[in-house]
């Protein structure tokens, strides 16, 4: 089976072709020490940057957290407005808007977090609700980064966001590499946060101390009609699902789906029963196109139509008899338990 690292490098090498195919188909200021103050971060925590860094080891889960407030009524620019040009497309900030939300307090303490398993241990990525991310965006208080691939980014993305592919960024000239490590960075994807959490986890591991992934994903940004850019911002997205079993022993590990011709990818977490679901929002990929699914235990390549009309068993085979994947996983458990 090809390793995940090999897959990632292979995926990145295909990105040059992805832009062509795809078209068819998140200023903060820091103190002298580089640590944002409570007022600058908009957080009631004593030191938001330090807390974000500590989340690599503290016990935080992605269980739903009851919100203490809402930012859904924030005033600011919307998609379709006459928006100013972006003077620096590589800085991750939107341009300065005519309408800016009034200052509010953001209590990041109630944010949930996404557990990302790495060889070095668990990284807990803070999940920012889309409306809070928009508040930071409209005030110019966060840099935005799109962790999807060329085709999806070119079709539609957050106006002002840069592209930086999950999990490790672009192979060359990734714009995030030039950003100060203490600046607030908001990463997003559309699954809703698997890829974004992967990219954010890498940034945290690399010393970035104020990184968040958008909890509900890019779809929530689109639904709220926040500012977007791209060749097809009004496109209707068909969600196609690949479901299967990886084996219960791989719980919390990642499964990847890759369309090599365009470089588009998706990730999902293996659940405690060994199951996974990959929700694909790809651009310009037909049912007849070949797709590769990589789990910790097997690699399977077949047409997208075949993948979405069957379930993948724990042995890496397509089955249409309904539930055989679960049965395979349970059979494995019985064998291991004797």
Question: What can you tell me about this protein's structure?
Answer:
- There is one protein chain.
- The protein is an alpha/beta fold and 338 residues long.
- It has two domains: 26-229, Oxidized Rhodanese, domain 1 (3-Layer(aba) Sandwich); 240-337, Sandwich (Immunoglobulin-like).
- Helix content is 25%, strand content 21%.
- The protein has ten helices and 16 strands.
- It has helices at residues 4-13, 15-24, 38-41, 48-54, 130-138, 150-155, 194-205, 218-223, 304-308, 324-337, and strands at 113-118, 121-128, 143-146, 157-158, 162-163, 185-188, 211-214, 228-229, 240-245, 254-259, 264-269, 275-280, 290-294, 299-303, 311-312, 318-319.
- Strands 1-2-7-6-3-5 form a six-stranded mixed sheet.
- Strand 15 (311-312) and strand 16 form a beta hairpin.
- The two termini are 27 Å apart.
- Mean pLDDT is 81; it is low at 1-61 and 323-338.
Write the layout of secondary structure elements.
Elements lengths: L3 H10 L1 H10 L13 H4 L6 H7 L58 E6 L2 E8 L1 H9 L4 E4 L3 H6 L1 E2 L3 E2 L21 E4 L5 H12 L5 E4 L3 H6 L4 E2 L10 E6 L8 E6 L4 E6 L5 E6 L9 E5 L4 E5 H5 L2 E2 L5 E2 L4 H14 L1
Parallel strand pairs: 2-7, 3-5, 3-6, 6-7, 9-15
Antiparallel strand pairs: 1-2, 4-8, 9-12, 10-11, 10-13, 13-14, 15-16
Record field, number of beta strands: 16
Spatial strand arrangement across the major sheet: 1-2-7-6-3-5
CATH class of the largest domain: Alpha Beta
* Series of H and E elements: HHHHEEHEHEEEHEHEEEEEEEHEEH
């Amino acid at each position: 089976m090809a390793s995940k690292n090999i897959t990632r490098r292979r995926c990145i090498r295909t990105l040059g072709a992805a832009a062509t195919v795809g078209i068819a188909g998140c200023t903060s200021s820091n103190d002298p020490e580089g640590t944002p103050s409570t007022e600058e971060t908009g957080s009631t925590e004593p030191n938001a940057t330090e807390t974000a860094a500590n989340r690599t080891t503290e016990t935080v889960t992605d269980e739903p957290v009851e919100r203490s407030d809402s930012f859904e009524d924030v005033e600011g620019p919307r998609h379709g407005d006459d928006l100013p040009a972006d003077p620096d497309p590589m800085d991750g900030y939107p341009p300065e808007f005519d309408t800016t939300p009034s200052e509010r307090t953001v209590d990041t303490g109630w944010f949930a977090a996404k557990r990302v398993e790495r060889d070095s241990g668990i990284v807990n990525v803070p999940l920012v609700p889309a409306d809070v991310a928009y508040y930071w965006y409209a005030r110019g208080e966060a840099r935005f980064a799109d962790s999807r691939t060329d085709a999806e980014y070119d079709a539609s993305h957050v106006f002002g966001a840069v592209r930086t592919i999950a999990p490790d960024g672009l192979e060359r000239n990734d714009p995030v590499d030039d950003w100060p490590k203490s600046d607030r960075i908001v990463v997003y994807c559309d699954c809703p946060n698997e890829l974004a959490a992967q990219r954010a986890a890498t940034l945290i591991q690399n010393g970035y101390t104020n990184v968040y992934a958008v909890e509900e994903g890019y779809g929530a940004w689109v639904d709220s009609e926040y500012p977007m850019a791209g060749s097809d911002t009004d496109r209707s997205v068909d969600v196609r699902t690949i479901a299967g079993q990886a084996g219960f022993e791989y719980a919390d590990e990642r499964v990847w789906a890759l369309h090599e011709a365009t470089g588009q990818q998706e990730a999902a977490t293996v659940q405690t029963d060994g199951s996974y679901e990959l929700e694909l929002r790809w651009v310009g990929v037909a049912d007849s196109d070949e797709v590769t699914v990589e789990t910790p235990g097997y690699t399977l390549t077949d047409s997208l139509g075949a993948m979405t009309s069957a379930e993948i068993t724990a042995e890496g085979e397509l089955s249409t008899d309904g539930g055989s994947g679960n049965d395979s996983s349970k059979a494995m458990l019985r064998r291991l338990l004797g």
